[in-house]
Amino acid sequence: LTAGFPPSRVYRIPGGVAIPPARRDDTRRAARETLAEVSASLNLADDSPLAVYTGRLLRNRGLPELVAAWRHVIDQRPDARLWLLGEGRAQRALEDEIEALGLVGSVVLAGVFDHVDAILAAADMAVQPAHEGGLSLAVLEAMAAGLPVVASDIADHRDLIDDGQTGLLVRAPTPDRLGAAILRLIGDLPWARRLGQAARDRAIERFSLDRQAADYARLFERLIDSG
Fold first, then answer.
1. What is the pTM of this model?
2. Is 37 a residue whose pLDDT tops 70?
3. Pairwise CA distance, residues 57 & 182, whole Å
């Protein structure tokens, strides 16, 4: 619009993601067993709460605050685990912060995975605390997998998440606030599962690859009909 194109020439089609099979306790358990075979650092008990972050390891992604928040989390749930997937410039600094806060083993820099299906299947929630320019694809993949998402309250995330219905949005995500939101989900896993199912339903309805393809098809038909 700023470039001068008329509104009638602008079309917004939401991104789409593949929809994996519905979550089940046995597939969650199997995913954890498979990942434990891949790396000993990914070994955790079946009843240990697991939160995951997927994306670039950059400071503006809110990762220092997330690591600090995990100190609050394990004060109440020592068995809880946080896996950070990805690589980036902040990796070394995050390693130092994890060690300084006594979180080695509780927070794991899991590296890069070509596919995150098993990671999401093993998790209980996803976390995306970016300060700006949120990771919409990562949020959508987590929602499609049936996970509740704890995310920073920024525009990109508000487009996807209904606070308290399909996930939790955290304003000005300080370590205290992030930790409190994560502990809300850990403290009420049946509610967390309901949020995750609602998130999956929304992903199927609005953000599936099938829906995206149908939107493009309708647009092409409209353009053809308009001559």
1. 0.90
2. yes
3. 20
